[in-house]
Specification:
Length: 100
Amino acid sequence: MKPLCIFLSFLFLGALARAGEPFTFPRSTPEAEGVSSAAILEFIKQVEPRADGMHSFMLIRHGKVIAEGWWEPYAAHEPHMMFSLSKSFTSTAVGFAVAE
C-alpha cells in the first residue's frame, strides 16, 4: 500500500504544479536527517564524470530537501525541459502493481 501512496503523492504534486500553485519542499541539513554530507559529496564526485551532462541534483529525505545543486548554465529559476517523464511515472506504477 505504501508504494501506491507514494505514487499518488507524485500525481498530487504534478496536479499542483499544473494548477500554477508553487510547491516547495521544506529544507533541512543532511546531518539533521541522518545522512553524511561527505557521503553526498562523494556520490556527486563519482556520478558526475560518468553522467552525460548533469543539469541538477536534489536529494530528499523524510520529505525535506537535504542537498541540491545545479551545473552551469542551468539554474533553479530557469525552466527545464522534461522528456518522457510520464513514462517514468507509468513504469513505476506498473512496477508497484506487479509487486503487490
